[in-house]
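Quick note —
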Amino acid sequence: MTVLLYSLLFLVSVVVTLGACTLFTNAIEWLGKRFNLSEGAVGGVLAAIGTTLPETSIPIIAIFFGASRAEAEVGLGAILGAPFMLSTLVIPILAILLVVYARLGKRTAVFKLNYHDVKGDLSFFVVAYGVALACAFVPSRPLHVIAAVGLMSLYLYYVKLKFSESGEEGGEGGLEPLLFARKSAIPSFGLIGLQGALGLAGLALGAHLFVLAAETIAGVLSISPLILALLVAPLATELPEMSNSFLWLYRKKDRLSVGNVTGAMVFQGTIPVSIGLLGTDWALAPTALITMVLAMGAATFLLVQAVWGGLWRPWLLSGSALLYIGYVVYLYGW
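Predicted structure written out below.
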């Protein structure tokens, strides 16, 4: 009965998340419109930070306020699980959905992106995450502090670059009226902010319900805490990014869709990692190191495609999901 009840809670969390996602994406697009920001800034910074801030509280609370080593490990799992999931699962799902939408006649099966932005985002992530990975093999506290400060500075530089881009028109889907002011040609900042805040709160609530259901079912089914920390929890916390990106992809706003994911990767590869470097000894177990290596490999694969071929091929992107599936199989055997 417990499993059935919390399975229903899963469904409720998805419904809440999708509704909140509609509010948030609509508001964030209008915010970018009012400030004349580029889609790179809207998707890669505003949407990415907005949806990652609630989940960033997980490692902060676990690492700085936790009373045990186990809680610190949960924090590290939340930090490392997010980039791994974004690079090996979320982007492949976007590629699969692109093909599905095309088969349904909703759009073409080609990503319409600014690949300069894609290459920039992935380059920032690969450099930042490479530094974090190297720190795991050098047990030097001063070096970890220097690396953390450097990563935070790198992210500030990334934000500066994004906001220096000029504003431009959205994708094929155009900009729909603000849901809280459908008859207003130019909605006020107050209504945009209110709708965005309610959407963000709904996304956080949906993720919380998802985590609650996942933790309970994991306990009933005796799922390993390691699997919960590295796979289940990140799946829940990345639900807002996934929902936003899937909706934007359906609306043919590919730059916002992909930028939301790659921008979140840059954020997750710098700010939460800095928290881990500052708050722990950054001594990572082999299973955790593997997630970093796989995330680096997937991101590098994406970057090479963008640089060498000048575009992303959906069938190649979807292949990255094999890394995620292989790791799940490995953990199950472990």
